Amino acid sequence: MRVLVTGGAGYIGSHTLLELLAQGHEVCVLDNYTNATPEVLTRVRTLSNRTILDYTGDVRDASMLDKVMQDFMPEAVIHFAGLKAVGESTEKPLYYYDVNVGGTLALLRAMGRAGCRRIIFSSSATVYGEPIYLPYDEAHPTAPTSVYGRSKLMAEGILSDWAAAQGDVSAVLLRYFNPVGAHASAQIGEDPKDVPNNLMPYIAQVAVGKREALTVFGDDYETPDGTGLRDYIHVVDLARAHVAALDYAANHAGARHFNIGTGQSYSVREMVRAFEKACNRSIPTQQAGRRAGDIAAMQADPRRAAAELGWSATHTLDDMTASTWAWQSANPHGYDT
Ligand code: NAD
Ligand code: UFG
Known about the structure:
Elements (H helix, E strand, L loop, with lengths): L1 E5 L4 H12 L3 E6 L7 H10 L4 E4 L5 H11 L3 E4 L6 H6 L1 H22 L3 E7 L22 H20 L3 E7 L1 E3 L18 H9 L6 E4 L11 E2 L1 E3 H17 L2 E7 L5 E2 H12 L5 E4 L14 H7 L7 H14 L7
Helix pairs in contact: 1-2, 1-8, 3-5, 5-6, 7-9, 7-11, 9-11
């Protein structure tokens, strides 16, 4: 299939490009590089030995979208382009709604003009909010607690309404849990521009000597060791879920939500220990209070994705930590190395 990948130079997008190319799909990337570098696509081209059409532009730019659609004529779009920092979303709500909601609207309009009928959307487990029960299944009520989460839920709603009104289109809404890890080549991985917000890249930067110690946010949660529990998923498993979603979209009309997680969860302390094993170094930690907005535990019920997409995660926690360490130690300054 010809697949337009918005935000394809980003962390999840770059891993997905490699999986799409490995399965014989043709890809085209639209990215404005607000959180990525063109070096990513250079590496993806080298690793895959394939050509990739790419456009530098904004997903909100209608004329740019029309040009991409006319040149490449995609049969499907995977829509990663968006902003994802929860804290920043509170400070810049209009910017987040503009990019995450406005970008999705602009893309759907351009797809309509070009006759493209399939979209896979990057949503997030954060749309569920404070758990009423765990693991979350797709029927769990949604009540996001941040601007970021609300922007994702609004985009989901628009995609569902679009699919219902058209009848012959497909929207697959993937609610990701916590993506971690890197490509087996150690050439592609997560490269946060500033101080990492997320646990795994922060641990990796401590391990490589870029930061002194991990701050553990909260040790008084109602969890076995008092630290937060999350469903970490290897980014290559997550990338493969998009390939499965494309196949699904080719055969199903309408909108459908899927949890993309492993169904297992690990605490902050378990993640630190697993990483210490992978890098054979000790990771200094300092204890702090809870981070505002954090919840105690999150875990996916991934059974719908297994039953309907034929997809399940296969990578282990050791795969997640070992691949992160391989990437971080080979690229201590990320793509600037
Ligand atoms: P990322 O920041 O690495 O990738 C996003 C890409 O989109 C970047 O390459 C960025 O330059 C590009 N981009 C941003 N705004 C754009 C715009 N207006 N026009 C064109 N390109 C633009 O993030 P990621 O971790 O790869 O996440 C991809 C998607 O998955 C995002 O929509 C994110 O919200 C969602 N998601 C991420 C996580 C996570 O923890 N990483 C969890 C759940 C959902
Ligand atoms: N944590 C620390 N220290 C840090 C960073 C994180 O102790 O320096 C803890 C957090 O308190 C939490 C756990 O590690 O208990 C995981 O935190 P992350 O920031 O890595 O991940 P979150 O679950 O908070 O959020 C992530 C993404 C969201 C996305 C969500 C989906 O940042 O965008 O996963 O589940 F919506």
